[in-house]
Amino acid sequence: MALLGAVSCKEDAPLSDDTKRTILIYAVASNNLSSFLRDDMAEMISAAPAVAGLGSTVRVMVYSVASQSATEATLKELQKNSEGEWEFKTIKNYDRDTYSTDPDRMREVFQDLTSISESDKYGLILWSHGTGWLPNFSDHGKDTGASVPQRSFGLDKNGSTSDYCDIHELAQAIPDGMFDYIWFDLCYMMGIEVCYQLRDKCDYICGYPTEDWSTGMNYDSTLPMLAAPVPDLTGAAESFFSHYNMSGLAVTVTVARTAPLEELAEAAAAVYAAGSRPGSSTGLQNYSRLSKKGQELFDFGQFTERYLQDDPDNPLITRFRAALDKVVEYGACSVASFDGQYGTPFNPEIYSGFSCHFPGTAAVASEAYYSELDWVTATRP
Length: 381
Fold this sequence. Notes:
Blueprint: E1 21-28, H1 34-47, E2 58-65, E3 72-80, E4 86-95, H2 103-116, E5 121-127, E6 130-137, E7 149-158, E8 161-165, H3 167-173, E9 179-185, H4 192-197, E10 204-207, H5 219-226, H6 233-245, E11 252-257, H7 261-274, E12 298-299, H8 300-305, H9 315-327, E13 328-333, E14 355-356, H10 364-370, H11 374-379
Parallel strand pairs: 1-2, 1-5, 5-9, 9-10
Antiparallel strand pairs: 2-3, 3-4, 6-7, 7-8, 10-11, 11-13, 12-14
């Protein structure tokens, strides 16, 4: 188990018990995950009695496309019914003419959230499939012409078509400063490229550089921590990690602060400029089981330090490690991996909290797209 600065997040925030907080779980389950969303919502209902202020100062909402056959999307709120029992009540319906992975729909839901539930603080949990920066092809059904490669969040299946959201679009859809944290409860999104793209959107980004089990986060334990006036993101991450690791299952999780990401980019850029890109990926810890070459996701810290592997005492490495420590508030990695569990074990000592792409290994179109990422332009001008 690798623990990096295991402290509670935002401890010095000047918030009180009467702080109004709303959590939105934006779930795209119109795929093979629909049953798992129902299970997670049941866990939230189970956790409701332990959520301080729920129904008064705290509101929990789920936007979802509940299944591939769903005729509409819904925004539901966790409320008490007439018998005093917690349940999810539909407060708005949306048509399915617009994909839930379309940034136009995301903006619509975010705007509705602020009008329906005026709060001091908002938290966002993104729930679906994810592939990090890696490309897919989507035009959101708008027939915009030539397909554009997408780094994807979400998978919205409607009939015979599938739709995804790229990271540029996601960043454009999320209002600056609306959410104090974003938690990716889906696979592969804790890549340095993804987090840097969203650096101006929130104070903290949490998620997994690896796959995530279909059962996702253990909301029955984590929801009270995420809904607190000062969210205990580290506590939620510890609970998530233990939930799987204690059963011998593969798991990774990271809580990252966004404010120091610019400093980290500057430190990484200095290493890249002073050293040489590794000649191969041999020996690098791989967090991806995606099968095609170029889809690997390697440990970001290990990859970066390889640039100066012949000069490990270089002060640029010290600077890089210090900058990384400022960003990663908590990180944990199991020994068990997703590659046949213990077939190819993870080394928790290597775990830096982020994955990264090995440039030059993907298809030409993907590499061209990768070169436009903010992280790439910031670190390899």
